[in-house]
Design brief:
Elements lengths: L10 H13 L9 H18 L19 H10 L19 E4 L19 H10 L3 E7 L18 E4 L11 H16 L8 E6 L5 H13 L6 H11 L7 H10 L15 H4 L40 E2 L2 H14 L13 E5 L7 H4 L2 E7 L2 E8 L2 E5 L5 E4 L15 E13 L2 E14 L2 E2 L5 H26 L11 E4 L3 E2 L3 H8 L7 E8 L7 E10 L5 E8 L5 E7 L2 E4 L5 E2 L12 E8 L4 E7 L9 H13 L3 H11 L3 H15 L10
Parallel strand pairs: 1-4, 2-3, 2-4, 6-17, 12-14, 21-23
Antiparallel strand pairs: 5-10, 7-15, 7-16, 8-9, 8-11, 9-10, 11-12, 12-13, 16-17, 18-19, 18-22, 19-20, 22-23
């Protein structure tokens, strides 16, 4: 079947066929209307190249009718202008992953511009696909305009319609639009009832090749229907020849998925139907479709290297519905559903003071350094990884996390950790995610298991499989490049309490990133969501801090605010100072982290917390102030720990754990 031939003739088509059949003698040598247009266009182009500009005949336009002004006339012309190359572009391709790629259907307002046999409306789309036993259930429109048809009738037909505006031209769809496309299409396809006939997704841009292909390749990659970008591109090209024919789009796909493009992968030539439409009937260059704006090539490299900071926004926003589903999973796995408002469920330490210091004598603790980075949980899924910030917002990052069987990818594995920036040299930085806890693995909660078991599994289940796959890919020449991922991953180390002195005096000073204290972790503790009274943090006295909301009142007063049970609380008699030459109004409405200057009895702004949208709770403020008042210095802390490790509970386990570590084994579990 010729997909460009309408199976259902319009009324005016039928009239024309009957009329010409009776009155016009048949002549097989008469050229078609399209052939005439092409011949005349070529003649005009040759004449334009041959004749000097001054000798070209002037075109005289007809006088305007009384009811038609220049603005209205231009609107009509632009509104009904055919997309360049649309007439000869094939209508739609073969199904790929339950998706049907197509050029944009045009409604009846374009009938005057489209000759008989070339019309392609949604009525004809439905009929053509029904002949091929395809039933459409969802339409995804990727054009950057609303002029081609009205979507108001789709709801009446029970069809789901999704509009994602993509500019076209040389501008690839942005990552947020890709996330919306993949999520919505996957939800529609995978949530269909097996008892009902399969419904397909009809996807179109203007011609159904570049933007449509770009989105479908992303979908195939994230749903594991293609093992590489090359395979996904080839599958789309077979379904919709010649496939994606813009080099920028192909390069962007390889760059996004951190894959090296083989020299055997060649960008197809621009189709003839697109090349022949570069000029209109007057020999003038046609504007590009969808009124896009020029786009900088993805191959261009910035001249200056940008310095990494903790305030950098990582990853891409996900659709609200997807974010809700991911939030729901985290809350269910940690059993925080129904516990007040939805909020970040990660475990929060409390400041060390002379009261909770006694916990070190009652329970067995290990210690680690407190990195001055950004707190994130990390959710590993087959379609990518999701950073979860303290505002409980999710952003997708393109990374691979294979399971230890080296075949599957992690499915809903939840990690906890912090993002730091290692300064390797004055010209080189590396972003690294330090994992210090494993909460769930492949949808199975580990929260109730003791910390030392969870910590041990981080290496076996997450870090080692990545390292093994990376080495294997390097040896076998696989296209994926781990070194192009947005950050590196490693497990954070914990040390026996007896080594805290070396940790403070030797390890922390030699770190390649900032650290502001220590964290004491109960070795046998379960994972406790939100505030964990047994998880202790000690900061250098001058670095104890509180996160305030800074505001400027109507009277010009500078105010520091906290939250008290979710409500804003003004902290009277608390003053803050900023650096020299800084205008405080620039900080109004922002969360500022402040340390306390005991000599001047006021707070000092250290930085703006771009990763937070709310200040500390008043209860946190009280604990920090108690820690400041107690003034547990490094000397006091080391003296206390020196006494603690001589307790029988510590002496025996430290000796046992030390022997196990020397043999490369996990420290012995405590008998409960």
């Amino acid at each position: 079947m010729d997909l460009n031939v309408s199976p259902l003739p319009e009324d005016d088509e039928e009239y024309c066929e009957n009329h010409f059949g009776e009155d016009v003698p048949r002549n097989d040598n008469i050229e078609t209307a399209v052939q005439t247009m092409r011949r005349e266009r070529e003649e005009r182009r040759d004449r334009i190249k041959r004749d000097p500009i001054d000798e070209r005949p002037m075109r005289v336009t007809r006088p305007l009718e009384r009811d038609e002004g220049p603005v209205l006339k231009k609107f009509k012309t632009e509104r009904n202008r055919l997309p360049p190359g649309w007439l000869d572009c094939p209508n739609f391709g073969h199904e790929v992953g339950f998706i049907i790629p197509s050029k944009v259907p045009l409604d009846e307002s374009f009938n005057d511009c489209v000759g008989p046999g070339k019309r392609y409306s949604f009525r004809q789309v439905v009929h053509l696909l029904r002949v091929k036993t395809f039933k459409i259930g969802m339409i995804v429109d990727l054009t950057n305009t609303d002029r081609y048809y009205s979507s108001s009738d789709f709801k009446k037909e029970g069809l789901k319609y999704l509009k994602i505006r993509c500019q076209g031209r040389d501008s690839v769809p942005d990552n947020e639009s890709v996330n919306i496309f993949v999520f919505e299409v996957a939800q529609f396809i995978f949530n269909q009832s097996e008892r009902q006939p399969r419904k397909y997704v009809f996807v179109h841009c203007t011609h159904g090749h570049n933007r449509t292909g770009y989105m479908i390749v992303h979908y195939l990659m994230r749903t594991q229907q293609a093992s590489s970008v090359t395979e996904a591109i080839e599958r789309f090209a077979k379904a919709r020849p010649p496939g994606i024919y813009k080099q920028d789009y192909i390069d962007a796909l390889y760059a996004f998925y951190h894959e090296t493009r083989s020299d055997l992968v060649v960008c197809p030539d621009t189709p003839e139907w697109k090349r022949s439409s570069d000029f209109d009937l007057n020999g003038e260059a046609l504007p590009e479709d969808d009124d896009g704006v020029p786009y900088a090539s993805t191959n261009e490299k910035p001249e200056n290297v940008v310095r990494l900071t903790n305030d950098d926004v990582l990853g891409d926003k996900v659709p609200d519905q997807q974010e809700y589903q991911l939030q729901r999973f985290c809350c269910e796995i940690l059993k925080t559903v129904g516990r007040g408002t939805v909020q970040f469920p990660g475990s929060h330490p409390v400041s060390l003071d002379r009261d909770n210091l006694q916990l070190l004598r009652q329970r067995y603790y290990y210690a680690t350094w407190k990195a001055d980075g950004t707190r994130y949980m990390l959710l590993l899924c087959p379609d990518g990884a999701y950073l979860v910030d303290r505002s409980f917002k999710f952003r997708r990052v393109q990374m691979r996390f294979p399971c230890k069987n080296m075949t599957d990818l992690h499915q809903y594995t939840l990690l906890d950790g912090e993002m730091i920036i290692d300064t390797i040299s004055s010209e080189r930085q590396e972003r690294r995610y330090l994992i210090y806890d494993l909460i769930a693995i492949n949808r199975v909660s580990l929260a109730e298991r003791p910390f030392h078991e969870r910590w041990k599994l981080i290496e076996k289940e997450v870090v080692e499989p990545r390292n093994l796959e990376r080495r294997s890919m390097d040896l076998n020449g696989k296209p994926y490049r781990y070194d192009l991922e947005p950050f590196r991953v490693r497990r954070k180390d914990f040390w026996l309490l007896s080594t805290v002195g070396k940790l403070l005096k030797e390890f922390i000073p030699n770190l390649s990133h900032e650290a502001d204290g220590l964290v004491f972790q109960g070795w046998d503790d379960p994972y406790v969501p939100r505030t964990h009274q047994g998880l202790l943090k000690w900061k250098y006295p001058e670095m104890n801090s509180v996160d305030f909301l800074f505001e400027i009142g109507e009277d010009g007063a500078e105010n520091l605010c906290l939250y008290d049970r979710g409500k804003k609380r003004l902290m009277d008699n608390n003053r803050v100072k900023f650096g020299d030459g800084i205008d405080p109004s620039a900080y109004a409405g922002k969360i500022v982290e402040c340390s306390f200057d005991s000599e001047e009895n006021m707070w000092v702004c250290m930085r703006v917390r771009t990763d937070k949208t709310t200040p500390n709770e008043f209860n946190t403020y009280r604990k920090v102030m108690k820690s400041i008042t107690d003034n547990i210095t490094e000397e006091v802390l080391l003296n206390e720990i020196g006494e603690i490790i001589r307790l029988p509970m510590y002496a025996d386990r430290i000796q046992s754990d030390s022997r196990a570590m020397k043999k490369g084994k996990q420290p012995a579990q405590r008998k409960m």
